[in-house]
Amino acid sequence: MAQDKERISQVIEVSISGKKIMGVGSAGLNEWGNLLGKYDSKERAMEVLEDIHRTIANNSQFAITYTMPTD
């Protein structure tokens, strides 16, 4: 779930752009990108990205759910 709680996205890639965390998904042949969260610093964005990675690594299911932290 996006940080603003207004969108749930199925993403295939998560990346950092400055203080923002972006998600990339696809629908057929079309790729799209969405802002998933924006933080006070790049360091905080990195911490959230690392938490996303840990959540994925610790889950053996095909799909996981993750709610972006608000701070």
Explain what you see.
By secondary structure, the chain is of the alpha+beta class. It has one helix and three strands. It has one helix spanning 42-57, and strands at residues 13-17, 20-27, 30-38. The mean pLDDT is 92.
Q: What's the helix count?
A: 1
Order of helices and strands: EEEH
Q: In total, how many beta strands?
A: 3
User: Major beta sheet, specifics?
Assistant: 3 strands, antiparallel
Strand content: 25-35%
Helix fraction bin: 10-25%
Helix/strand/pairing category: alpha+beta
Quaternary state, please?
single chain
From the alpha-carbon coordinates, what is the Rg to the nearest angstrom? 12 Å
Q: What characteristic shape results from the CA principal axes?
A: globular
Strand order of the largest sheet: 1-2-3
- The average pLDDT is 92
Distance between the termini: 14 Å
Instruction: State the low-pLDDT regions, or none.
Output: none
Observed structural traits:
71 residues; alpha+beta; 3-stranded antiparallel sheet; 3 strands; globular
Task: Describe the secondary structure blueprint for this structure.
Layout: E1 13-17, E2 20-27, E3 30-38, H1 42-57
Antiparallel strand pairs: 1-2, 2-3
Short description:
23% of the residues lie in helices and 31% in strands.
